[in-house]
Amino acid sequence: MIALGSDHAGLPLKLEIIKLLEERGLAYKDYGTTSPERVDYPVYGRLAAEAVARGECERGLIFCGTGVGISLSANKVPGIRCVVCSDCYTAVLSRQHNDANMLALGARVVGVDLARMIVNMWLDAVFEGGRHAQRVGMISRIERDYLKEPGGPQDAGC
Ligand code: RB5
């Protein structure tokens, strides 16, 4: 299952990517927004990210004008590694090396054909593990340190 989310600016591209997911026969759940009325991207980045973090969805695709605001919001949810992409190389490497579990696209930045290519390549790319797993583990460690675990930075007075 793929979690989807967007604000009003990202909605047109999300609708195009829904067509792609349907062509590929991939299941998805759309956490909104569904209308062109102006809304706040953190709401929808959070909803989609929480579905991924809870394990209800394996991956997430989110959209706003630039992809920036909604990716920043998603990345505040523990367990989320969201990459904002406007090129295929970054998309593939974000899977192979960083095990990115969410992809954000800017509807005002990338055209539909490029977005489709990026999403296809991101969905098909596989995490390579090995030394990369160790580094991804280090990212998670930073997150845990700031989740008020005993011994985290708050104890050191940072
Ligand atoms: C909305 O105008 C726009 O700010 C939003 O879609 C996004 O680009 C923010 O990062």
Question: Topology of this protein?
Answer:
Layout: E1 2-6, H1 11-24, E2 28-30, H2 41-53, E3 59-64, H3 68-74, E4 82-84, H4 88-96, E5 102-106, H5 112-124, H6 131-145
Parallel strand pairs: 1-2, 1-3, 3-5, 4-5
The structure holds D-ribose.
Q: What report would you give on this structure?
A:
There is one protein chain. The protein has 158 residues and is α/β, with parallel strands linked by helices. The protein has six helices and five strands. Strands 2-1-3-5-4 form a five-stranded parallel β-sheet, with helices on both faces. The radius of gyration is 16 Å and the shape is globular. Residues 7, 9, 41, 64-66, 68-69 line the site of D-ribose (RB5).
Helix content: 40-55%
In whole angstroms, the N-to-C terminal distance is: 39 Å
- The CATH superfamily of the largest domain bears the name Sugar-phosphate isomerase, RpiB/LacA/LacB
Would you identify the CATH architecture of the largest domain? Answer: 3-Layer(aba) Sandwich
Q: Please write the CATH class name of the largest domain.
A: Alpha Beta
N-to-C SSE string, H for helix and E for strand? EHEHEHEHEHH
The distinct bound ligands, ions and cofactors come out as: D-ribose
- Tell me the radius of gyration: 16 Å
Low-confidence stretches: none
Q: What do the pLDDT scores average to?
A: 95
In spatial order, strands of the major sheet run 2-1-3-5-4
The computed structural class is: alpha/beta
Count of extended strands: 5
Largest sheet: 5 strands, parallel
What characteristic shape results from the CA principal axes?
globular
Beta-strand content estimate: 5-15%
The figure for the number of domains is 2
Tally of helical segments: 6
CATH-defined topology of the largest domain: Ribose 5-phosphate Isomerase B, Chain: A
